[in-house]
Amino acid sequence: MTAVSTRNGPEAKAADSYTVVKAKHPGRWLSAAAIIVVAALLLHSVFTNPNFGWDVVGLYLRDVSIGRGILVTLGLTAISMAIGIVLGVIFAVMRLSANPVVRTAAFAYVNFFRGTPVLVQLLFWFNLAALYPVITLGIPGLHLDANQLITPMTAAILGLGLNQGAYMSEIVRAGILSVDHGQTEAAEALGITRMQTMRRIVLPQAMRVIIPPTGNETIGMLKTTALVSVISVPELLYSAQIIYARSFETIPLLIVASLWYLLITSILTIGQYYLERRFARGNQRNLPPTPWQKLRRFIATHDALALKGGTR
Question: Where is each ABC transmembrane type-1 domain found (predicted)?
Fold first, then answer.
């Protein structure tokens, strides 16, 4: 004989069901409340303190000289990063060369420019005429006046570009080493030259590793351009310094420069995010949704729920 349960219907469901209670996290609420209180106090202090001079900030935020400084900053960033990327690829390939002389020369370049402060390098290039008043480059009949050739902008480009090339060399080298060595061996078996292998096989696959730190270096370069103000290059910070040297509004002008730096770096960060997603397509099957896609999905879900509730 088999025992048959006499409980059925609601009584059986009540006996077999369990009450699910969500775990409580009071620490999360307390920490969130503390952060909100501190942020509110900080914002209140910032916006109510008259010494910040927010009226002066609003006045100079769109000043013509500040706009010119922004253009110089963006131009310096673009040119220096372009030089750095080209030099980085060249010296990364040299670091991986089988020729010990080439490998040692590349190592010396990277070690020198990474081992000395970029500010010292900028000052060195700016005062190059003290060492070489006439630049000949070993070419007979060539005599270049260093004072006219090495302008503040030229010194800034040389200092930033050469320094960035050393850092980009290590980034590119890491990307090349991340590619499976079997790719190179297969290319050699097919008779493909080393340069063709590097250009058509290795570097395209290494881009997934190279792109993220390159984006970070670009953002870092944008902020590093502020150092060229010491050699009188009229970039963003130097333009702000010229204004507050006349008006004595030091803090408001520094806030203006900081707001513009923050805006530009935020735009570059967004661009870096989407660029990383593009190069991650071949490595990830399902990419996480972007903030815009999350917003559209939320709006679509909300509209669908509202429509469903309205038709009842």
Answer: 70-272
